[in-house]
Amino acid sequence: MTDEEPQVKGVNHEGHKGPQRKSRLTLLLRDALPEWAARLLFGRLRGMRAFIPAIFIAVAVLLLYLFIPGLKEQPWTALRIGGAVLAVVTYALVVAARIQLGKSFSVRPEARELITHGLYARIRNPMYVFLDLMVLGLILSLELYWVLVILAVLVVFQVRQARREAGVLLAKFGQAYLDYRKQTWF
Fold first, then answer.
1. Distance between CA atoms of 102 and 113, rounded to whole angstroms?
2. Could you tell me if residue 36 is inside a domain?
3. What is the mean pLDDT of each run of 10 residues along the chain (186 residues)?
4. 169 and 96 in one domain?
5. In angstroms, what CA-CA distances link 71 with 67, 84, 89, 146?
């Protein structure tokens, strides 16, 4: 391996088209992983990247259920069952919203494309809405009521983020975004 960092074409971390530098850690991980895992994480199976967090969330919830002391022994009341149903249904909707967002997904507000189909046809931020409902369902089903405080903080951050995203979309798409806002519920 040379001292120079390898470059690949694409979009760099700042969102500009042009050469992208891959860190040595990325290259080491890519070389150390089995081929299918390296392709999943670093390239050819880009459509599958939406499923990595989905799998992580499911495994994390299962581990919480298995390892929170006394939780398995608690009776399944109507509230716990309702919470579990809410969590499962909204989990599926979070995954669906992420898939529908496709390449327009980013952590920072960016305006790549105005998504107006699927769940986005009626809800401007379905990932935020359904993620919050999923967490609420988990709180109810796992009886972790203290997490309501964390959920409240999360909602505040999501509202701020949604406003920033709306500003970016309005700046790029103008009247088309305003028309889209009128056709959505919230």
1. 10
2. yes
3. 43 44 60 60 51 78 86 92 94 89 74 87 94 96 94 96 93 93 90
4. yes
5. 8, 13, 22, 15
| Centroid of chain to Cα 28 | 26
Q: Are residues 145 and 75 in the same domain?
A: yes
Compute the 3-state secondary structure of the chain and give helix, strand, coil in percent, each to the nearest 5: 65, 5, 30
Q: Is residue 135, in this structure, part of any structural domain at all?
A: yes
| CA 7/CA 124 separation, integer angstroms | 36
* Same domain, residue pair 168 and 124: yes
- Residues shown for the chain: 186
DSSP-assigned letters across all residues of 9-42: EEE-TTS-EEEEEPPHHHHHHHHHS-HHHHHHHH
